[in-house]
């Protein structure tokens, strides 16, 4: 074999690249990664994935190990979420795919029942972005129900008012990503059932933690009549590597439209339960191995650690002058906002706080303020996802959170309008591209999308200091989020596309 580069050198280079990544283990990154704190579970996952590395998950009759693992993984999830024999499911590539399939399937059933035109997808405004994507891809009108600015939950009666014959699916979260709010599942399910509307519970982030939560919770899963489908990610609180989630559906006949099948080509007969054709079996094998090995007791043990750590963080933040917890978080995540009930000099802006924590080596996640259509403005917040390993680092984390608040207490929130004003003072020629036009769309087309060439977009990013700079973008995010809050949405979305697209372009020849 002639190699251009020795495989060992290639791996050494990757190891060096990995060293520059945010740390995936050790609890310093409080989003994106879910560290069980058990090296043996990571080893188990890697061993299982390696055993099936060459397998094609496309065909469980040729690779029968896939059928066994998927059946047992769905069985584990069904038991955890109190489904009976009528509940069936699929392993998918992740939460987004589970949500996409839930929406597509519900839309197809709605059409088959005589629905015509463009159906609505009804959800609280805290619903995960995956449902925005699903509505766009499968052509549903996303009908967002405002949530309370106090606790992030929609009012069931207001939600019920949106349910009708043109609604193909309603969605609630257990809990929501932005605020960890547990939506009123039972109340909304009763209204949905009465209106004949299918109801999906998005338990992608918290499902496998809530199922083993140490304290009692209101019913939120298949115990609730009227819940027709449920998504839960194994690559979050199932501690599996990325690429695995489950979508469970009540009723075989409700699930079968999820499948795509065709014999209408000269190749092999195609049957796909998910969006991909050929697909890896590695993430499935990893999740299967972890759940088989841990069982419900092991899952409960890990969940208890995350639950204790979450309670400790909530108690610590409540002690910090100028910050407060948003609403009543359920599960191992929470959001923090500025306490506007104290004097301005005592307030802590959650985004400045997040940047100060980052400077001290703790990565929290900044969430912009959000103007709900037809509802109260939602505050800017900082999100923390808590994992079992967090409990071990509490002795360092809790003082760091308090010190980060001390470092920024009394500083006014970064005002996006001011950031924009300074920028325009320096570069007046940008006004035409950055300021909202009368129609609110800065040159947006009918669908709210922005016609902006990629070089133009890159130029704007450069003038905003977001492209081509020396400093890594992730080090001071508060001003970026402040701009997200004030720039017209189509423009922000277009600029974000450009930013990420440029980040992964092949390197320029030097
Ligand atoms: C993570 C998440 C999703 C989407 O999952 P991905 O795994 O990121 O594709 C959906 N809903 C909620 C509430 C989530 O937290």
Q: Could you characterize the architecture of this molecule?
A:
The protein is 41% helix and 13% strand. It is α/β, with parallel strands linked by helices. It has a seven-stranded mixed β-sheet with strand order 1-7-6-5-4-2-3, with helices on both faces. The chain has a four-stranded antiparallel β-sheet with strand order 10-11-15-12, covered by helices on one side. α3 (64-80) packs parallel to α10 (282-318), α4 (95-112) packs across α5 and α10 (282-318) packs across α12. Residues 94-96, 99, 128, 130, 173, 177, 202, 204-205, 233, 245 line the site of pyridoxal-5'-phosphate.
Descriptors for this entry?
single chain; 510 residues; alpha/beta; Aspartate Aminotransferase, domain 2; four-stranded antiparallel beta sheet; 17 helices; 13% strand; globular; binds pyridoxal-5'-phosphate
Q: What is the structure about, briefly put?
A:
By secondary structure, the protein is α/β, with parallel strands linked by helices. 41% of the residues lie in helices and 13% in strands.
What is the overall pLDDT average? 94
Unreliable stretches (pLDDT < 50, length at least 5) are 438-447
Q: Approximately how much beta-strand content do the residues carry?
A: 5-15%
Supply the CATH class of one domain. Answer: Alpha Beta
Briefly note the CATH topology name of one domain: Aspartate Aminotransferase, domain 2
Helical residues, percent? 40-55%
Q: Bound small molecules, which ones?
A: pyridoxal-5'-phosphate
């Amino acid at each position: 074999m002639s190699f251009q580069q020795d495989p060992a050198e290639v791996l050494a280079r990757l190891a060096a690249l990995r060293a520059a990544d945010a740390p995936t283990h050790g609890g310093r990154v409080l989003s994106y990664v879910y560290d069980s704190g058990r090296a043996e579970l990571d080893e188990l996952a890697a061993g299982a994935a390696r055993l099936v590395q060459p397998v094609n998950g496309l065909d469980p009759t040729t690779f029968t190990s896939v059928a066994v693992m998927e059946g047992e993984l769905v069985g584990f999830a069904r038991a955890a979420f109190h489904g009976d024999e009528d509940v069936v499911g699929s392993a998918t590539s992740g939460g987004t795919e589970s949500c996409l399939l839930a929406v597509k399937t519900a839309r197809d059933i709605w059409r088959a029942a005589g629905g015509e035109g463009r159906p609505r997808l009804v959800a609280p405004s805290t619903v995960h972005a995956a449902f925005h994507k699903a509505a766009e891809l499968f052509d549903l009108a996303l009908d967002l129900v405002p949530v309370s600015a106090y606790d992030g939950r929609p009012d069931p009666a207001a939600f019920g008012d949106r349910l009708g014959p043109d609604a193909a699916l309603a969605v609630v979260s257990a809990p929501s990503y932005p605020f960890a709010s547990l939506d009123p599942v039972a109340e909304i399910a009763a209204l949905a059932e009465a209106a004949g509307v299918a109801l999906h519970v998005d338990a992608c982030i918290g499902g496998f933690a809530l199922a083993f939560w140490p304290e009692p919770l209101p019913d939120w899963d298949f115990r609730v009549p009227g819940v027709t489908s449920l998504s839960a990610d194994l690559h979050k609180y199932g501690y599996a590597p990325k690429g695995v989630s489950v979508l469970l559906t009540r009723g075989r006949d409700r699930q079968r439209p999820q499948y795509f099948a065709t014999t209408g080509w000269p190749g092999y007969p195609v049957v796909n339960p998910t969006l991909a054709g050929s697909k890896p079996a590695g993430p499935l094998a990893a999740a299967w191995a972890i759940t088989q090995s841990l069982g419900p007791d092991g899952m409960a043990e890990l969940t208890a650690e995350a639950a204790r750590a979450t309670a400790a963080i909530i108690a610590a933040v409540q002690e910090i002058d100028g910050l407060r917890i948003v609403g009543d978080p359920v599960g191992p995540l929470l959001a923090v906002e500025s306490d506007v009930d104290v004097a301005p000099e005592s307030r802590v802006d959650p985004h400045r706080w997040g940047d100060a924590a980052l400077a001290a080596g703790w990565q929290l996640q900044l969430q912009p303020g959000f103007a709900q259509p037809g509802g109260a403005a939602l505050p800017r917040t900082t999100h923390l996802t808590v994992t079992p390993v967090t409990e071990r680092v509490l002795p360092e984390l809790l003082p760091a959170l308090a010190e980060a608040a001390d470092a920024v207490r009394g500083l006014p929130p970064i005002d996006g309008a001011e950031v924009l004003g300074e920028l325009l003072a320096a570069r007046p020629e940008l006004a035409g591209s950055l300021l909202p036009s009368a129609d609110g769309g800065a040159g947006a087309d009918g669908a709210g999308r922005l016609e902006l060439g990629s070089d133009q977009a890159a130029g704007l990013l450069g003038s905003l200091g977001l492209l081509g700079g020396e400093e890594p973008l992730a080090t001071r995010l508060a001003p970026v989020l402040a701009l997200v809050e004030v720039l017209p949405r189509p423009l922000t979305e277009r600029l974000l596309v450009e930013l990420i697209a440029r980040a992964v372009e092949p390197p320029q020849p030097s």
